Amino acid sequence: GHVCHWHMKYDYRLREWGQHYDPLECARMCNHIGGVCSLTHKPVSKKKGNVFYDVKTSYIRNDGTLFDGEEVVRIEKGIRLFETAKSMTICEQVEKRCREHIYNLVKDRYHVEILLYKWKVEVLNIRAEQREGRDLLQDLQDIREGIEVVHASDKQKAQKEEKKMRKQQSQEKRIARLEKKLIDTGYYNLEDYSLDKIHADKWLGEERIQELEGMRQEKIKEEREKPVQLSLFDL
């Protein structure tokens, strides 16, 4: 006898309202975390977590190498369904009622591999947890059986580190170009409020700017004191 407006839908054909419970809608819209669910009148836990699952892929190599015809099996473990943590109450309902959604999600993700390369893709071990749990003994067993084991959290961490490194290297190149320009042109010859001057103040600081200005003056001095070579035609 209870209703929740997030689950109410109007059927224009039948001209009547109907209610269809979808925990995924709760994950997107529920504002009763720590309170009472409008639909079930049961507590909605403050404890947060996620829905995790594993994906097992297998295919036969066909690359013309010595390993041609060999089966390659890989399991990616601990994939998160939601980008951010949700109430454990909602996660538990998603685990029970939304398995088909997860299967379709994975099927769409590997659509090309399944259709063109005949990959076999399986969804394993769907579970609701507060944090990712790891079964090290199972990982070792899988590795002994020749299965490549990858954890999604490790993969994401490596991607973040790689992105951070690329960003740092790019910033170092920009700073090097700016410092060269300050040595050639001079900080005090830059136009006020120019992008180069703003970046110099932000990235280098007063002490480094003075060092570069000293290097510039030394370069100018060396150019002035450089001996001039005369040719016979100058005599």
Q: What does this protein structure show overall?
A:
This protein has 235 residues and is α+β, with helices and mostly antiparallel strands. Helix content is 46%, strand content 20%. The chain has helices spanning 23-29, 88-97, 99-109, 111-117, 136-144, 152-185, 195-203, 205-225; strands spanning 8-11, 16-19, 48-60, 71-80, 86-87, 120-129, 148-151. The strands form two sheets. Strands 3, 4, 5, 6 and 7 form a five-stranded mixed β-sheet that branches. A two-stranded antiparallel ribbon has the order 1-2. Helix 6 (152-185) packs across helix 8 (205-225). The chain starts with 7 loop residues before the first strand and ends in a 10-residue tail after the last helix.
Low-confidence stretches: none
Q: Which radius of gyration do the C-alpha atoms yield?
A: 31 Å
The shape, in one word, is elongated
Estimated share of beta-strand residues: 15-25%
Please report the distance between the alpha carbons of the first and last residues.
111 Å
Alpha plus pi helix count = 8
Total beta strand runs: 7
Strand-pairing-aware structural class: alpha+beta
* Percent of residues in helices: 40-55%
Give a quick account of the main beta sheet: strands, pairing sense, barrel closure: 5 strands, mixed
Mean pLDDT: 91
Series of H and E elements: EEHEEEHHHEHEHHH
